[in-house]
Design brief:
The chain is of the alpha+beta class and about 140 residues long. It folds into two domains: about 40 residues, N-terminal domain of TfIIb, CATH 2.20.25; about 100 residues, K homology (KH) domain (GMP Synthetase, Chain A, domain 3, 2-Layer Sandwich), CATH 3.30.300.20. The chain contains three helices and six strands. The strands form two sheets. It has a three-stranded antiparallel β-sheet with strand order 1-2-3, with no helix packed on it. A hairpin with a 2-residue loop joins strand 1 and strand 2. Helix 1 crosses helix 2.
Length: about 140
């Protein structure tokens, strides 16, 4: 896996991945930015949510569950010191589908958190308190 981050100006950077995709990262005005891109720490949360959501959907689909929608709502707390690392992250999955069993969604969320999601496991090993929960919506 490869990635490149290029400084544009101020505190704006463009990140480009080996798969050919790019994203703008920028800081708030009070830190010299123009507030036209995501913060780097927000990118970590998005990566975590994407990684875990990928697992949850794949596990449910492999179990032949009729998943229609999966949303990961992520909340995080950071320490009040430098470096301002994450101390707690909570992922709340809202999974919608037809005849979804609560036990199947619970299993998928737990497998992602404990076995498959590299981002979640890495953050947990770094000392971040990781929690997960879910709700199932019948459509």
């Amino acid at each position: 896996m490869q990635a490149t981050v290029k400084w544009i100006d101020g505190v704006m950077f463009v990140g480009e991945t080996g798969s050919g995709h790019a994203v703008v990262m920028d800081g708030p005005v009070d830190h010299g930015g123009r507030n036209i891109g995501m913060r780097p720490m927000e990118m970590i949360l998005l990566g975590l949510g994407g990684c875990s959501s990928f697992d949850v959907v794949q596990i449910l689909q492999k179990g032949r569950n009729d998943v229609v929608k999966c949303v990961a709502e992520i909340s995080a707390e950071r320490v009040d010191a430098v470096p301002s690392v994450f101390s707690k992250i909570h992922l709340h999955f809202v999974v919608s589908g037809k005849n979804l069993k609560t036990s199947a969604v619970e299993r998928a969320v737990n497998l992602s958190a404990e076995k498959y999601c590299s981002a979640s496991i890495m953050l947990g090993k770094a000392g971040v308190e990781m929690t997960h929960d879910f709700e199932v919506i019948e459509v």
